[in-house]
Automatic annotation (TrEMBL):
Single GO MF descriptor: 4 iron, 4 sulfur cluster binding
InterPro entries: Mrp/NBP35_ATP-bd, NUBPL-like, P-loop_NTPase, YlxH/NBP35
Keyword Metal-binding: yes
Record Gene3D superfamilies: P-loop containing nucleotide triphosphate hydrolases (3.40.50.300)
Protein family per UniProt: Belongs to the Mrp/NBP35 ATP-binding proteins family.
HAMAP family: Mrp_NBP35
Protein name as catalogued: Iron-sulfur protein NUBPL
This protein's UniProt keywords: 4Fe-4S, ATP-binding, Iron, Iron-sulfur, Metal-binding, Nucleotide-binding
One of the GO biological process terms: iron-sulfur cluster assembly
Any one annotated GO CC term: mitochondrion
Length: 279
């Protein structure tokens, strides 16, 4: 780890990027990427991320929003943002981000076509992250939302070392995404401890898939339990957003059309927008 630290560029600003928001979750499959598209600042889950980025673009149309998929092992942004091309290289030898719904995106999923990343280790992951951060023409990006992989491993350390985070206003902080079951909360708590150690501000917690409404009787069921609030209190994190389990969100992920675009007036989208406004 010491060797890797020495080889990495340390906390340099990213050309063309004003603010960075990370979106993180301890456990996979809790909806980080789904959320992130909607966030303006640092951390969100994949489904969360996609909706956050697009919501951010809706609440701040004059701002340039970028979405960086730092999950080199399981990139999901190309599917969720419906971007499947390979980026072009400009005259400065930088990759040009792909754009959909007004959001600039860059993902390992657009650079490799096979599963070779699954066997990558340490330095290779760090090299790839550095390329995704600094080998891209982010030109005038007001907010860069970073979708991080699940866990507390190499990628997070690499990001924490590589991004101009602590004590620097460029990084707004990390948004934690989790579901409510104990299996997820334990890992989420470890993630929170890691971010605190790395001195990355925690912007809030998103409890994803919080309730499921019965389509027949409208009864709301806390399918994964409701212990996230307890965790937030214990960890002294004030801000908590709840997003229900909604088939429109699942369909939006699979079809590459975020719910922010397909159902702009829905109550779920109001939550994503308030999250974007809050950030
Ligand atoms: P992570 O990034 O945490 O691994 P994803 O964002 O990829 O998780 O979410 C996993 C899947 O769960 C997505 O493909 C999406 O279809 C679904 N999903 C996420 N959040 C919701 C939600 N609130 N309602 C319905 N489906 C959701």
């Amino acid at each position: 780890a010491e060797l890797m630290r020495k080889k990495l560029p340390q906390k340099r600003p990213i050309n063309g990027v004003d603010h960075i928001i990370l979106v993180a979750s301890g456990k996979g499959g809790v909806g980080k990427s789904t959320t992130a598209g909607k966030l303006i600042k640092i951390y969100i889950n994949v489904y969360c991320i996609v909706n956050l980025a697009t919501a951010l673009k809706c609440v701040a149309p004059n701002k340039d929003v970028g979405l960086l998929d730092a999950d080199v092992f399981g990139p999901s942004i190309p599917l969720m943002m419906n971007l499947h091309e390979t980026p072009l290289i400009n005259n400065d030898n930088l990759m040009v981000p792909l754009i959909n719904y007004g959001v600039k995106c860059m993902s390992m999923g657009n650079l490799i076509t096979d599963q070779s990343a699954a066997i990558w280790r340490g330095l290779m992951v760090m090299g790839a992250i550095d390329k995704l951060i600094r080998g891209v023409s982010w030109n005038h990006t007001d907010y860069l939302i970073v979708d991080t992989p699940p866990g507390t491993g190499d990628t997070h350390l690499s990001l924490a070392q590589n991004l101009p985070i602590s004590g620097d206003e460029i990084i707004l902080g990390v948004l934690i995404v989790t579901t409510g079951q104990k299996a997820a909360l334990g890992v989420t708590r470890r993630g929170i401890t890691m971010f605190k150690k790395l001195k990355i501000p925690i912007l809030g917690i998103v409890q994803n898939m919080s309730t499921m409404k019965c389509s027949k009787c409208s009864h709301e069921n806390f399918i994964f339990g409701d212990s996230v609030q307890e965790l937030a209190i214990q960890e002294k994190i004030d801000t908590l957003f709840s997003i229900p389990l909604d088939p429109n969100i699942t369909n939006g992920c699979d079809s590459g059309q975020p719910i922010v675009i397909t159902h702009p007036e829905s109550s779920q989208v109001k939550i994503y927008k308030s999250l974007a406004e809050y950030l």
